[in-house]
Amino acid sequence: MKATTKQLIPREVLFGNPVKASPQISPDGKHLAYLAPVDNALNVWVGSLDGDDYQPVTEDKERGIRFYFWAADNKHIGYIQDIGGDENWHLYLTNIETRETRDLTPFENVQARVASRDKHFPTELLIELNKEDPRVHDVYHLDLLSDELQLVAKNPGNVASWVIDTQLKVRGAVTALPDGGNELLVREREESEWSRLITWTAEDAQTSGPVSFTHDGNGLYMIDSRNANASRLVRLALDTEEMSVLAEDPHYDVENVMIHHDTYEIQAVTFNRDRVEWTILDASLQEDFMRLRELHAGDIFILSRADDDQTWLVSYVVDDGPVAYYVYDRASKNGHFLFTNQPELSNYLLAPMQPVTFQARDGLTLHGYLTLPEGESQTTLPLVLNVHGGPWARDSWGYRAEAQWLANRGYACLQINYRGSTGYGKDFLNAGNKEWGAKMHDDLVDAVHWAIEQGIADPKKVAIYGGSYGGYAALVGATFTPDLFCCAVDIVGPSNLLTLIKTIPPYWSTFLATFHTRVGNPDTEEEFLKSRSPLFKADQIKIPLLIAQGANDPRVKQNESEQIVAAMKEKDINYEYMLFPDEGHGFAKPENRIKFYAAAEKFLARWLGGRYEETEESA
Questions:
Q1: Which of 16, 54, 213, 573 has a C-alpha 20 to 30 A away from that of 498?
Q2: 332 an active-site residue?
Q3: Cβ atoms of residues 210 and 198 within 8 Å
Q4: For the residues 457-477, what does the mean pLDDT come to?
Q5: Contact indicator for 446, 462 with CB cutoff of 8 Å
Q6: What does the alpha-carbon distance between residue 224 and residue 208 come to, in Å, rounded to a whole number?
Q7: Is the pTM of this model over 0.90?
Q8: Hey, which bits of 135-252 come out as E strands?
Q9: Which residues are in the Peptidase S9 prolyl oligopeptidase catalytic domain (predicted)?
């Protein structure tokens, strides 16, 4: 029986580890792997798909495993892990029978990325390492039988990403141009010279790029926004350069792409409108998707597929409950329920997430999501403006722990995809250029005024809250528009755009020109960037601030928080500061998440008047 909304949902349920999550089927379709905690750290568990013999096969004791995959031999699990959030990922391989784990990239201060794995090459991987130059990644062939690494593509210093063909060969490269644009290079074979195929200007670069080669290697699938607003899925013939459009929407970018294991043809794509919607390109899948829509409510995601493509693992995302996972059999067109990621959520009354749309002050259409306390008064509420990070990302519909947490505590939670967010086409994305702390913030201010005009928000009780860019937005709210908000919460947010850009991780070197285009160049626009940096307006802060930072954050360095804290301390401004010595850009360890959310909840309750889950320390 579900609890009433008056009951507080425990922070442990909202922000602790999932019970089970991220299931993947083995290539032969006989086994299932998923993430589940062992001593509060997420590890990979494996068992028979139709049995109950699941056991943990990995032994991570620190940060928990978040990304893993089945090796094509059905005998190994691969996963990546860093130390303390430093993002220097190592690639590990675990034998599921012996539990032996090998570090395949045992290099200090080197970041490993999986470039390509393919069922047709079961004992091989292509990986990227910035071993020779911390600024760029080269491609290595990894023999999983001998652990031997062989360099197969050397980065000359400007390659931002590599494209692998269906024969596991490096045949494409996307290079970064000084003006923020990109070039697509291709070659006939790995031994051939590169030739330039496409140039994307800075206007199109972030909404365009290669997806994969065709099976015969003579064509490329790409997303491309040239001559259009939103990125389209296209097929490009390499010999004639003839291009055909496979899927498009005038307002929304192509998001996810579903590729067949054997034909390498694209079978379906998603567009993330108010919700995720599928466009089916392969007619043979129409009946499968029709059946999947009947199985369970929610937005559908295909998580993994067996090599014979007869067994799929599917997740269903809803806004007011846990994620549900199903096994779907294509032959019988039947599916059966596996588990949910956090079954305890079903004991509580969760709030629906409502898509909202309104006009910014300059007429631009803004989209977002509103989550209100369920079963209580839904007018003149204390409001938390929850700003997404990136900023080149977006909020989406579905279960969001923070939205449910805030609604359960008595707040309206408003999440706005301000200009500069992705998914809404290049015009919307590019409208955010050089608008940090300006029109991007105006959109957030307009969202608050919209909520007040709708009778949703109490104008005297509005908080601004967010992480990364959202943390920056919280600091901007406290400094640029301090009369609109009564408090602010900043999680790993930059306070000084000059030092942010000058201290980006070395492996973001090929992204630096994009930073200059979209944010500003500290070498030529110092005063401009100062004018958009909360640090230099710290004397305007009138509201209390909670700041949380990971000491090992390679993206937004600890100094970004320390600078603004020092300025507030000097001016005797009310603040709380939490520094996590074993975290990076965000809080991976559940005990740290719980500690932060306990402090944030108490902080918001003090200044907005909402509810708070007492702990032994706070009681």
A1: 573
A2: no
A3: no
A4: 98
A5: no
A6: 4
A7: yes
A8: 138-143, 149-153, 159-164, 170-176, 182-186, 195-200, 209-213, 219-224, 232-237, 243-247
A9: 397-610
- 370-387: pLDDT as tens digits: 999 997 778 999 999 999
Query: What's the burial of 611, exposed, middle or buried (CB within 10 Å: 0-12/13-18/19+)?
Result: middle
Separation of alpha carbons 346 and 337, rounded Å:
15
- Cα–Cα dist 349/338, whole Å: 22
Report the alpha-carbon distance of residue 125 to residue 76 in Å, rounded.
13
Q: Which residue has the tokens 């992480």?
A: 467
Task: Give the tokens for residue 286.
Answer: 């129409």
3 state SS of 478: helix
C-alpha span between 96 and 105 (Å, rounded): 19
Closest CA to 436 of 492, 500, 384, 491: 500
Is cis: bond before 391, omega within 30 of 0? yes
Please identify which of the residues 76, 137, 141, 585 carries the catalytic annotation: 585
Structural domains of the chain, with CATH: 19-153 (2.120.10.30), 158-257 (2.120.10.30), 353-608 (3.40.50.1820)
Reference 258, options 231, 294, 221, 226; nearest CA is 221
Residue 279 buriedness (CB in 10 A; 0-12 / 13-18 / 19+): middle
Contact 64, 39 (CB under 8 A): no
What pLDDT is stored for residue 4 in this prediction? 57
Q: DSSP string of 361-375?
A: TTS-EEEEEEE--TT
Residues facing 45 on adjacent strands: 34, 56
- Whole-number Å distance between alpha carbons of 72 and 118: 7
Give the residue carrying structure tokens 């998707």. 289
92/60 Cα distance (integer angstroms):
11
Which pairs with CB-CB distance under 8 Å and at least 24 residues apart come from 118-122?
A: 118/72, 118/166, 118/168, 119/27, 119/72, 119/261, 119/307, 120/166, 120/168, 121/72, 121/168, 122/27, 122/71, 122/72, 122/73
The angle formed by the CA atoms of residues 84, 86 and 87, to the nearest 5 degrees, is 120
Tokens representing 520?
């500003």
Residue linked to tokens 């105006």: 442
pLDDT band at 3 (very low <50, low <70, confident <90, very high): low
Coil vs helix vs strand at 453: helix
Q: Which of 304, 421, 553, 561 is catalytic?
A: 553
Element of type H or E holding 477? helix 469-479
468 is annotated as an active-site residue: yes
Do the beta carbons of residue 218 and residue 239 sit within 8 Å?
yes
Choosing from 468, 495, 509, 561, which is the catalytic residue? 468
Please write the tens of the pLDDT for every residue from 405-452: 999 999 999 999 999 999 999 999 999 999 999 999 999 999 999 999
| Segment holding 528, helix H or strand E | helix 526-531
Measured in residues, the chain has a length of 619
- Tokens representing 551? 């000491």
